[in-house]
Amino acid sequence: MDLSRKLAKLEDDEAADAVSKVLGDDNLLAEILLRVGFPTTLIRAAAACKRWLHHASDKAFLRRFRKLNPPRLLGFYTKIHQGAPRFVPMLPPQPPELAAAVRIVGGYRFPAGPDGVMSEGYSFGVDGESLFRYEVSVHDCRNGSLSTVLCGRRRRGLRYESRRSIGMHSPLCPERAIAIDPPLSPHHQHPKYGGSHGCIILSREEKDGGLSYFYVMLENPMELDITSATNFTAHVFILKDGVWCMIASATTRIDHWRGDIRAVLVDNKIYMVPTYIEITVLDLATSSFSTIQLPCPRGLGGFMISRADDSSSVYLVGVKEHQLGIWLHKGGSWSIVDTFSLNEMCANLMMSDWVKDTVLSERRITHVGDNAEFVILQRRRAVLYLDTRRRTLRILYEVPKEDEPYDDVISANPFMMIWPPTFPALKSDPTRNAM
Questions:
Q1: Which end of the chain is more exposed for a tag (fewer CB within 10 A), N or C?
Q2: Of 43-47, 101-105, 409-413, where does mean pLDDT reach its minimum?
Q3: How far apart (Å, rounded) are the C-alpha atoms in residues 405 and 393?
């Protein structure tokens, strides 16, 4: 062996020895795995051997990993009027490590109704009665899971008959999808009960990373002549082993309900916005209502609430003329967190129509992320994404021109990368397991 080959071999041996010393140190290995950046990359690294899998799947390590690498936003489920929800990926640049996940979610399809019908109008069967028309609405989207309501309606003579089914979907793991009937109202046997009620589906991430699902049933007792003093009842059910179990029920009086009541679940409290002047809070532990006055109840053209990490706090995001403000309610009082000039930000996007338009009612907040980290805005045909941390605004989606004329609300539910990652089982391989 000549001198050059000996030197090359010596360098290779030294490099291999250096790598072995680094990867053989558990503390250094954990720091390296901590910085792979994506759960998909972490899963591939964990498949190398049992030792790496042991480090990557450790609960304390996963908590550090999530804090350093929060689950990424893959895109949004949007819905226009009565159309089916569709997945819209975040605009480039998207990391290539997430490309496969984005493709899988984009290819997921919601099941049709029991009759296989998913239509916009009513069609008639052979018996002269109309077939059911089904419509899917996304109610909750958290940790890679979606909760939907499949509503079916048909006309029978002079009246309508309705059906409703709840779906729990995991687009990244389609085999986990389940369908379940909604819970029955406590008044379902009342002679005047018509079967209709408002509903909100919420989810809560538990300490083990799993999700608990809640069904909030909203009813008006006055329609049943049960009481004349109250007109707003909320029954709350939790899904346990495929069965809805009631955990709270409370009644109060709320005048002038909103048609689109939004809510967020923070710990054991549900914050709802049934009116334009206050937030109604339902405490699940005590089955009681309380209220929080808005910081400027007469001046907000539109607003939404957002979960906070602190279970005693909640964010409020509202639009007042050309300004978007973020408030935090904590300790019984409101404090302003940040403000944004929508005119200036839209001017930077060359959206002169936003600046010139004086019809402020056509500017809507359609969704707010946890901790008010992002806000989804609608301006006529355009859906905008405001990153409140980076203070950047960009167009997320535009309604195609073939859908003219258009004047409706576009819903937008964010879809995040699933957490925690599911690690594959290693095959029996003494060589790999010994690493």
A1: N
A2: 409-413
A3: 26
